[in-house]
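A quick aside before the break. I want you to see a complete sequence-to-structure record at least once, exactly as it would be stored in a machine-readable document. Don't worry about memorizing anything.
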Amino acid sequence: MRHRLGVDRRRFLSTCTAAATAAIAAPVLGAAPAAAAEGAQQRGPGHGRGWGHDHGGHVLVPSYRRGIILYTVRDATGRDPLATELPSGFREVFRELARHGYRQVEFAGYRQHPNAPGGADLGTVQGARLLRGWLDDHGLRARGNHGFIPSSWPLTTEDLDTFKQNLEVANILGLGHMGTGGDPTGSSYRADWDVAADKWNALGEIARREGIKLYTHNHDAAYGFLLDGGPLDGQGRPTRSSGIRKLEYFLKVTDPKAVWLEMDIFWAHVARYKFHSYTAHDGSTRENVFDPAGLVACHNRRYPLFHAKDGAVNTSNGWGYDMVPFGTGDIDYRTFFTRIGHRQYHNPMVEQDNAPSATDPGQSLQHAHTGYDNLAALRRRRRR
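That is the input. The structure line, written in tokens, reads:
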């Protein structure tokens, strides 16, 4: 599990070896001089396991790129401010996150406790204006939201109208990206991924015309192997694979100017643990170990957003990892961010699904602070 893997040897990623290697030293894309200067100035002690002692090299995540998805602190945004002195609701949570250093947030919907300023549902034009004001007050930028992506295809008039309303809210918030927390399809069959690609290409073009990048956030299943050949089953469906992964195929058949992705790095590593062999068209079993950083390096501009979620190795739970606060686990984030490069383009959002606690109301914000400290502490290794 701890072995550092090279770029995937199989068909689709075999062409990306040079790109993955070059990613470490690739020039930064689109960096403003002030941003580059800020990144060069970021130094200081780290707090993560084994990271705080390496003060050489460059910061891997510049301060203005350090973000958090608000799902991590959903208990805090959902708290009743009349019943606690802890930060409650979006406005006070923004204040707390900014105080600790975060400069970016990603929404996971726009609902909060009804007693918080603005009321329960801020997913309206008026609510978005309130949220934007609070973000601006605390020097925060909203990068994305896990919101409404129509499930129907072809689109109904109602779904299209709702989708456009969500784009309007996104523009008020200045998101730049709008997406979903689910895979384009739960199927393993190529035909279903073709349909999903048609839908996402169409939605992505609508979003692009509004200045928004439409993105899909994926879990481990999307990195399983596509069933695209071999003997057919009783329903006429393929039973074997060419070795290409489902999300690799999706990248191939979607428009790079209209469809974007957000890699959850934890779930990508779970996929590496789970999906390492497949049955080829000829019936043989073949090995193909997934390389998350290699995939990103091959499609770097398609990945503007990441979930930076950590895991401690556990080979008894079916995933290969347990979720833990960012920087306290075994996923090698220093190597990952070094390999993908382009540090002034990517936006990692700290996430921890299990940060809220039924017995410790302050835990999620404490873990958010830990995550920020460890993200800020990441440094590229010094060359010897």
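Two observations worth writing down. Confidence is low (pLDDT under 50) at residues 1-15, 17-56. The first helix runs from residue 11 to 14. We'll return to this after the break.
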